[in-house]
Amino acid sequence: MSDRITLETGELSATVALAGAELVGLTGADGAELLWQGGAEWPRRAPVLFPIVGRLAGDTLRHAGRSLRMTQHGFARDSLFRLVEATGTRAVLRLEDDERTRALFPFAFRLELAFAAEGPTLAVTATVTNPGTQVLPFGLGAHPGFRWPLVDGVPKHDHAIEFGAAESGEALSVRDGLLGPPRPIPLRGTVLPLSEALFADDALVLPSVRSRSLRYVARNADGSTARALRFSWEGYRDLGLWSKPGGASFLCVEPWYSMASPEGWDGEFADKPGLAHLAPGEHRAMTWRVTL
């Protein structure tokens, strides 16, 4: 069995790896690759963030008197998922707790990633289920990295994020992977012009973001659209935008539920601000979509 699955519609082709349930390729009808393909600046493409988003203080998860090592963004992105369904336009991959995960994260869980392609749209639904007997606390996030510039020949500074709703004009700062105080962002109405300087201090974090969609757009010199991706999400609460400080040829658009630990917080994991909690037998689904 191949370690990759390709979904095709004629308007879109998406390739998913069993390693990390990671989207590793995304092309439109013209064959142009729109996903960052990894490099020295950042080796990943679209990792799944689970059971945490961001960092914990000291990379340590505290539970019931135990201190367990949990590195940034959790272990799902480095885990091998099992393929449970595959057609030409749909694939479902599953990760469940086992002896290895319980040594890092002492909770029962089932995480499924369903990829569905229809026309020019790829939908990615993550479903977390609690098959255990205790409450399951967790964070969940998507981290797809798109090409920046999105079109060859269009300068990076001629790209923008166009939010679907008015945002506050502030984002939380990130310092050594932890959440710092708010800082202003150069929002013009619902439009955030993109520049390398925007990410000089790491990611922009928008907690409880108002928008449920945005456009990532590249514009020609005359202001016309050279290419745009429409991005939307359901179930996720927060949003991160990131490129490598110092400049890199990618932009990550990241819907999240949960964020990194705030500076100065280092308590019981289940009490971490912003986590989701599932009672035994419950499940929760969150979806993001990209339309080419």
UniProtKB/TrEMBL annotation:
<dbReference type="InterPro" id="IPR037481">
    <property type="entry name" value="LacX"/>
</dbReference>
<protein>
    <submittedName>
        <fullName>Aldose 1-epimerase family protein</fullName>
    </submittedName>
</protein>
<dbReference type="InterPro" id="IPR014718">
    <property type="entry name" value="GH-type_carb-bd"/>
</dbReference>
<dbReference type="GO" id="GO:0005975">
    <property type="term" value="P:carbohydrate metabolic process"/>
</dbReference>
<dbReference type="GO" id="GO:0016853">
    <property type="term" value="F:isomerase activity"/>
</dbReference>
<dbReference type="GO" id="GO:0030246">
    <property type="term" value="F:carbohydrate binding"/>
</dbReference>
<dbReference type="InterPro" id="IPR011013">
    <property type="entry name" value="Gal_mutarotase_sf_dom"/>
</dbReference>
<dbReference type="Pfam" id="PF01263">
    <property type="entry name" value="Aldose_epim"/>
</dbReference>
<dbReference type="InterPro" id="IPR008183">
    <property type="entry name" value="Aldose_1/G6P_1-epimerase"/>
</dbReference>
